[in-house]
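Archive maintenance. Older records in this collection stored only the sequence; we are now back-filling the structure field for every entry so that each record is complete. The fields below show one back-filled record exactly as it appears after the update. Entries are processed alphabetically, and Protein FAM3C-like isoform X2 is next in the queue.

ARCHIVE ENTRY
Title: Protein FAM3C-like isoform X2
Organism field: Parambassis ranga
Length field: 233
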Amino acid sequence: MRRANLSRCLWQALMALVLLVIFFTVFMQQGNPFTAEWRRAVLKGADISNQASKTSTKAAAGPCVKTRDCPEDHFSFYIQSGAANVVAPKICIQNKLVLGALLNNAGVGINVVILNAKTGEVVKTAHFDMYSGDVNPLIKLLKSVEKGSAVLMASYDEPSSKLNEDAKKLIAELGSSAVHLLGFRDNWVFVGGKAAAVKSKFEKVLKNDHANNKYENWPELIDLEGCIPKYME
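Back-filled structure field:
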């Protein structure tokens, strides 16, 4: 009798243990909130890591991140104006930076790159302070531009205060239609050519408007990209 009771107790204990193991296994696989949270955390961490990797790859591509492929008889360009008086403009030719803060050749006012439109060679880079500087060096440079040259310009901070009619006329002769309307702290980017027969289609201007400015006293930066046709004599 005693042996039978002992066997029954052992059997019940064994069944209870089996049920407990089954319950615990199901709970861990399906209902454990900590396991689910951990999975979400791991997936989120992997996603953040992946995004960081993509960002690093993009940053490693260099300052000319907006690359562009053009026909063989064209030269690609990308221009970005300055942002307020903090971020300098940049100009890229054939996906290579030719003017910008990294090269230490950009400055407040009007930034200029002169390109030999026959060979794609950068002839000159310069910047001219149009607030407290002198417009005459800019005029001298514009008069020296040779036929078959492309001229790329980008504003930074303030491009217009010292820009007189002589300078505006020379820039208009390169194909600009906005230079005569350029005002205090407007943002402006432009690509033209010596003795341009028509007005350039490569030009943008964003007016300084306190009600719409992104940077309070300055408008948002603007950019421009495209393909400059090779000069054919």
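Update note: Residues 74-229 form one domain. The chain has two domains: 2-60, 74-229.
Entry marked complete.
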